[in-house]
Design goal:
Layout: E1 4-9, H1 14-23, E2 30-34, H2 39-49, E3 56-60, E4 66-71, E5 82-85, E6 88-93, H3 96-109
Length: about 110
């Protein structure tokens, strides 16, 4: 299965821009989707993970499950994977730096 990441962003979001700049250092197949231009996937993802903080990252092809990374809105959520659907888990992180590190480690460990 091909590894791919999809980043959900908001136009004008400084955190989203910084995160995308960080991801440009990783040689990987990635797609950025602006929620302002394509709100359906973002609305569906928000509903699934019960979070509306951006950016969000959808990782496919690293395991049997799709991994959705998003920013935690409660400290108790951090790094506690939660099953949110058939073959889907969400991992809440405390910052975009920790989100980038999570993605970077996945790519390093799955070469």
């Amino acid at each position: 299965m091909m590894r791919h990441l999809t980043v959900l962003t908001l136009d004008g979001c400084d955190k989203c821009k910084k995160y995308m700049e960080s991801l440009s250092r990783i040689d990987c197949l990635k797609t950025a989707i602006s929620c302002d231009k394509d709100p359906t996937i973002c609305d569906n993802t928000e509903s699934l993970v019960k979070c509306d903080l951006y950016p969000m990252t959808i990782l496919e092809g690293f395991s049997k499950e799709t991994i959705i990374l998003c920013l935690a809105f409660e400290y108790s959520q951090i790094l506690k994977p939660k099953k949110v659907g058939i073959n889907k888990i969400v991992v809440y992180l405390h910052s975009i730096d920790s989100m980038f590190s999570y993605v970077q480690n996945l790519y390093i460990n799955n070469k």
